[in-house]
Amino acid sequence: MLKENLEKVEQKIQKAxxxxxxxxxxxxxxxxxxxxxxxxxxxxxxxxxxxFGENKVQELVEKYEVLPKDIKWHMIGxxxxxxxxxxxxTAALIHSVDSLRLAQEISKxxxxxxxxxxxxxxxxxxxxxxxxxxxxxxxxxxxxxxAKLPNIFIKGLMTVAPPVKDPEENRTLFKNIKQLSVDIxxxxxxxxTMEILSMGMTNxxxxxxxxxxxxxxxxxxxxxxxxYNKK
Length: 231
Ligand SMILES: *Cc1c(COP(=O)(O)O)cnc(C)c1O
Known about the structure:
Helix 5 links the parallel strand 4 and strand 5 (117-123). 40% of the residues lie in helices and 19% in strands. The chain has nine helices and eight strands.
């Protein structure tokens, strides 16, 4: 069943690439496996998926320890500073950097471990108070400060778009994020590239790809609905 879900997602990605003139290999599919059991992740791994996304540090680390080592783990959820030490060296990419203090902590921990950690900046252009992420103005100020920190690389932007009935409702938002990345690129800041745009979830990843996403984070579309009550 999961393999069929995955095939459907794959076909939709290819179609979105075709209509927008993009190359399939420029898009990374991240299978968002939060709350899902190891057996399901293994099944998707066996279907050749190597990028998995988790939103809780403990769950990411537990899965990292037992699953094959060629998996790239993506930290996509809100990250607390006291948990940074567990993800630095474990996660291949931290998508959800939403404050300077968090970036400083990641930098410090990465220096301790003698590694350089790629990060994305979480953007919230929809202005929803309940969400994490920088506004457009805050982003530029943040980047100028964060770019100076040792042992981190800013690789792009990430956003969590609002849940909408019709994914077309998020098209302008995705366009604006892409435009922001273009504006940042033009500033030519050391240690900053905008090669990654992590945007689009089950409901709207095809629209996100059409508007420039390079990473899409698909959970439900691959693994089915999540049950948060089950323990
Ligand atoms: C859960 C989650 C996803 C996946 O959501 P689906 O709608 O199940 O595809 C993507 N991104 C983030 C940040 C998430 O927390």
